[in-house]
Amino acid sequence: MTSQGTMNGKVALVTGGSRGIGAATALRLAREGADVAVTYVSGKEAAEDVVRGIEALGRRGLALRADSSDAAEAGAVADRVVAEFGRLDVLVNNAGVGVLGPLESLSPADVDHVLDVNVRGVFLVSRSAVPHLGDGGRIVTIGSCMTQRVPGPGGTLYAMSKSALIGLTRALARELGDRGITANIVHPGPVDTDMNPADGPYAPPQSAMTAVGRFGAADEVASMVAYLAGSEAGYVTGAEFAVDGGHAA
């Protein structure tokens, strides 16, 4: 089946694209017509399942093992995509980790790991992608509702790491705007994934924190990413978009 979407001929890279929001985003971009590469660390089979889904939509898919906490791997991933597909038009910085707990329980190793993946990795992947992006290029980064509202204790490290991406996004927008490249950030609220299921033990209080009283679906976040990655969002850059069910309202 050939897509009739708005991204025909484009190539996208979705980091952490083997599951959850990343997988939903990869498939949505493929439905819009893009060829899509996804990265994974340990979920090879899941990433290959996503690739099969992309190919079933008539697009090319690629699964790459690339650890965002490894500076060399993060810094080379865009080159690997271009070597396979010949170009790169869209980067979705989705890979991330969360370590929650009381401040005094967070070790230096925890701090290093979270910042390596959530901040340094995003910076390095973005840096690797920028030389390949041309006019109409798009960078969309997945942030967190906890950058807008931290509803309780235990989120210091995670909220700090995701908040850094707001500054990165705004700076990228300024640095790349004259090249016709946009940079935006999407802040999901509680979303039903295998890491944070809507029927899990911590779900009821999270649902209660939203205005709509429920978890979001990964596809609902992916739809915002697809808009920002598409041609209609060319005048949207340096902006934050909450897809959080009113978590920050």
TrEMBL record:
Q: Which family does it belong to?
A: Belongs to the short-chain dehydrogenases/reductases (SDR) family.
Mind listing the UniProt keywords for this protein, alphabetically? Oxidoreductase
- Cite the Gene3D superfamilies for this sequence: NAD(P)-binding Rossmann-like Domain (3.40.50.720)
Residues covered by the Ketoreductase domain:
10-194
For whether the record's keyword set contains Oxidoreductase, the answer is: yes
Q: What is the lineage of its organism?
A: Bacteria, Bacillati, Actinomycetota, Actinomycetes, Kitasatosporales
Question: Would the keyword Oxidoreductase be found if you checked this record's keyword annotation?
Answer: yes
PANTHER family with a match to the protein in the record: SHORT-CHAIN DEHYDROGENASE-RELATED (PTHR42760:SF50), SHORT-CHAIN DEHYDROGENASES/REDUCTASES FAMILY MEMBER (PTHR42760)
Query: Mind listing the GO molecular function terms for this protein?
Result: oxidoreductase activity, acting on the CH-OH group of donors, NAD or NADP as acceptor
InterPro entries noted in UniProt = KR_dom, NAD(P)-bd_dom_sf, SDR_fam
The organism encoding this protein is Streptomyces populi
User: What is the protein name for this chain?
Assistant: Oxidoreductase
